[in-house]
Amino acid sequence: MATRRDVLKAAAGIVFCSCGLVHNANAQQSRQKLPVTVNGKRVKTIDIHAHCHFREAGALLGADAARFQLPPVNGAAEAFIAIDKRLAAMDAQAVDMEVLSINPFWYDRDRDLAAKIVKIQNERLAELCASKPDRFAAFASLTLQAPDLAVQELETAIKKQGLKGAAIGGVVDGVEFSDPKFHPVWAKAEELGVPLFIHPQGMPELNKRLSGNGWLGNTIANPLETTIALSHLIFEGTLDRFPGLKIIAAHGGGYLPSNADRSDHACLVGPKGCNPEIKLRKAPTAYLKQIYFDSLIFTPEAIRHLAVQVGAGQIVLGSDYPYPWQLAPVDHIFACSSLSDDEKADILGRTAARLLGIVA
Predict the structure, then answer these.
(1) CA-based angle 76:15:329, to the nearest 5?
(2) Are 246 and 48 in contact (CB under 8 A)?
(3) For the chain, what is the total number of helices (H) and then of strands (E)?
(4) Are strands 41-43 and 14-15 parallel, antiparallel or unpaired?
(5) Which of 76, 184, 205, 318 is the most buried (most CB within 10 A)?
(6) Under 8 Å between Cβ of 119 and 67
């Protein structure tokens, strides 16, 4: 998970965060090598959950940048690395392509400043992807607190800059994605046929309860934020309004898939907690087929259960690189004996290639 601290520590030009894969001799080593094959057939492996930052964007925070200093996180605290080192790390992970994203740190900034940050990031992402089109793709940043700007940014990113969709947080300065103010953005994404990658930012309103051992602000709160965001999109009828909208949820969709059937019972058991004017077109769990989920859930059993709940065709490869949550994401999928060869190939890259319009 990328943090605001990363923005402040970026070196000049295009930079990436380092992690223990390259420098830590005790790091898990990938057994798969490029090119990756499944049942004798070549598969282009595509990691849709990888992060980077740019110095110029962080510099725009000016004197206020100090308040974004956070405690060191494994991966974030190390020196940022050059592109050649990032490519070497990808090779070691047997990852052909990373789809880069930048977690929003600008949603509480004023409109003009946020627009400047987003403009720099999208331009730099486009330049990087154009320089290494076989290794990098990217999700655009959006000034979501100003939806009219976000619509323009998304159209420019897709039609002129060659980006593959957009990365968004889990909430925008306290406003849920189901709020009608965001409808023009979702309509534009639906029109363009590109996905929106939801990555949580943390839940500071829970800081008191999350304090103590276990890094609960990330361990618990990040999956919870994604769960809340997805649930609002479902229960408020947003996914009904935009049936062609494609969502990718980080960290396996948080807690929603693992306890999805509870959503189907909520309004039956507690109708007073549900708005009778919102009439969903299908059962809440059926909307999971409209959402894609990354594979960053650690164990073959977790992948098996996710595939049962949402279908293996809705799962895409994700590592959270450079943060060392999953340093061998490709091996992780090969270890899933519950998956067929076709399902493994889809998760490793074929589904992402179709979703993002990437030539496999």
Answers:
(1) 60
(2) no
(3) 16, 12
(4) unpaired
(5) 318
(6) no
Contacts of 209 (CB under 8 A, 6+ apart): none
Asked if 290 and 239 count as a contact pair (C-beta separation under 8 A), the reply is yes
pLDDT tens by residue, 112-161: 999 999 999 999 999 999 999 999 999 999 999 999 999 999 999 999 99
What digits encode the pLDDT tens for the residues 168-186?
999 999 999 999 999 999 9
Distances (CA, A) of 130 to 125, 135, 194, 296, 303: 9, 10, 19, 27, 33
Strands 195-198 and 166-168: parallel
Cβ atoms of 228 and 220 within 8 Å: the answer is no
Other CB atoms within 10 Å distance of the CB of residue 266: 14
b/e sequence 287-302, b meaning 16+ C-beta within 10 Å: bbebbbbbbbbeebeb
DSSP 69-97: -----TTTSSPPB-HHHHHHHHHHHT-SE
Q: Is 37 helix (H, G, I), strand (E, B) or coil?
A: strand
Q: How far apart are CA 210 and CA 205, in angstroms?
A: 10
pLDDT tens readout for residues 35-68: 999 999 999 999 999 998 887 887 888 876 655 4
Instruction: Give the tokens for residue 191.
Output: 């029109």
The secondary structure of 135-164 as a DSSP string is TEEEPBP--TTSHHHHHHHHHHHHHTS---
pLDDT at 319 over 60: yes
Identify residue 34 by its one-letter amino acid code: L
CA distance 243 to 186: 10
**Bridge-based pairing state of the strands 36-38 and 41-43:** antiparallel
pLDDT at 20 over 60: no
Assigned CATH topology for domain 4-356: TIM Barrel (3.20.20)
Backbone angles phi, psi at 81, to 5 degrees: -110, 160
Cα 174 → chain centroid: 19
Which helix (DSSP H) or strand (DSSP E) does residue 308 occupy? Answer: helix 300-310
CA 333 to chain CA centroid, nearest Å: 18
- Alpha-carbon span 150 to 119, nearest angstrom: 11
State pTM to two decimals.
Answer: 0.89
Domain ranges of the chain: 4-356
